Amino acid sequence: MLQVKSLTITHRKDLRTILKDFDFVLNRGDKAVLIGEEGNGKSTLLMWIYDPGLVEPYAEADGVRILQGELLGYLPQELTDDDKRKTVFEYFSELPAFQDAHLFELEKLAAEMRVPVSLFYSDQKMLSLSGGERVKAQMARLLLANPDILLLDEPSNDIDLSTLWWLEKMINRFPGSVLFISHDETLIERTANRVILIEQLRRKTVSRVTIANVPFRTFMEERQRAFDKQLQEAYSERREEKKAMERFRRIEQTVESDLRNISRQDPHGGRLLKKKMQAVKSLEKRYDREHEEMTEVPEKESPITIRFEHQSPMPAGKMVIEYDLPELTAPDGRVLAKSIALNVRGPEKICMIGDNGSGKTTLIRKIAEELLSRQDLTACYMSQNYEETLPYDRTPVEYLAPSGKKDDITMVRTYLGSMKYTADEMFHPIRELSGGQKAKLLLLKISLTEANVLILDEPTRNFSPLSGPEVRGILKQFPGAIISVSHDRKYITEVCNTVYRLTRVGLEKMEMPRFREEDF
């Protein structure tokens, strides 16, 4: 059992309260998901639970963490720079359980995760692995340690569809407890039996946590129904109050007028009017009490707001790209695929899927290079590695308003506000932002251009389950072409109309997948 008592976490830089008086118990068998908008403190909470010292450089935490001898296993969202420089074998060799593991244990784990057992002994640098391969290596090392409680920060990021199936099974079958963060709504729907929602209300000045012991979809539906019901009751009570107050004011004005005009020769009438005024004042107090007892107008953190407003539709007959590549090679010279052919016409929205390490990111980078150099269209590229395209030392305002003009800054701050940035966060260096906030920034930058072609590598990987539907909706309505790589099953089915699988012999066009395990 894991227990957290009276935990308050405050951001050191802008003194914003991330969590306040948070209490939580994680029992054996619980599969709890942490959800909330980007930058609301989910990763900070998970990190503090694993090791309170890890958050000290940027947050002040006051609370109690109680364990009863359980071993924690923690999957961070990003590897440390030191771990990235290690070979895969060095990374595993640091774990005593790896040294003691029998070969058949490693073979079984490798088979389940669909990686060669030779991966554990590879001299390849961790940094050179694909994003999905790194997550697999981290998960494998974590499970070899045989923890009692798993703390997983974005385990679904970058992994291929077959590994997503494995991850779902692993979480559901894990005998201990799991507390995880994920933006993959399908994964959450299929695994979580508890939901912890972290919200930042009133422009991120008030923190609120909701804990529900129900599956994710049930939680979302019940939350919306309760919100709508409370909102209806609150507005109905206020309408009735307005009518009652209008009647009351008319009575009050009549009595006050009669009091001013009554003759001094009519003391009996004066006494009656004074009694009426006392009754009016008593009625006013009653209305004041009723106002205090009225149903509160409910609050909830709304998802991000973003629109593509500057883009012209892509003509249906326009050939966006006719791409032929005899051979796709990795940076180290390995041949990943041959005979790649891709034709995209008009406002088509395509997605490329494939196993981790098959070369999807390498391929989409090459496609981006060609499209970004074209003069007959306007293309924008969103890399899987945000550091490739974002200036980490600049602030969001500097990035979006490089002119420094007052009007441009005002406009950009308005846009950033719609994406749930606080005034302080708008002026933080981009490197200090969460992965989701960086993704928002890239998407906002794209929306301010006149792009009619988007090249997107894992575009939804860092958007919360609250903002995910909004992001998918705007990409679906984008009037141009989209060429993307994704393992997000909801993105693929809701946004894309053509799916290709990258194999060693090229791009294989698929029927729209139904996402059954046997298909992958």
Blueprint (SSEs and pairs):
Layout: E1 2-11, E2 17-26, E3 31-35, H1 42-50, E4 59-67, E5 72-75, H2 81-85, H3 88-93, H4 96-100, H5 103-113, H6 131-144, E6 149-153, H7 161-173, E7 177-181, H8 185-191, E8 194-201, E9 206-212, H9 216-261, H10 267-292, E10 319-329, E11 335-345, E12 349-353, H11 360-372, E13 379-382, H12 396-400, H13 406-418, H14 435-447, E14 453-457, H15 468-477, E15 481-485, H16 489-495, E16 498-503, E17 506-510
Parallel strand pairs: 3-7, 3-8, 5-6, 6-7, 12-15, 12-16, 13-14, 14-15
Antiparallel strand pairs: 1-2, 1-4, 8-9, 10-11, 16-17
Helix pairs in contact: 9-10, 15-16
| Estimated helix fraction | 25-40%
Mean pLDDT: 88
Largest sheet: 6 strands, mixed
Shape: globular
According to CATH, the homologous superfamily of one domain is P-loop containing nucleotide triphosphate hydrolases
Helix segment tally: 16
User: The CATH topology of one domain is what?
Assistant: Rossmann fold
| Spatial sequence of strands, sheet with the most strands | 5-6-7-3-8-9
Approximately what portion of the residues adopt beta-strand conformation?
15-25%
Report low-confidence residues grouped into runs of 5 or more: none
Number of strands: 17
Q: Under the CATH scheme, which architecture of one domain would be assigned?
A: 3-Layer(aba) Sandwich
Evaluate the radius of gyration.
29 Å
The termini sit apart by 36 Å
- Helix/strand-derived class? alpha/beta
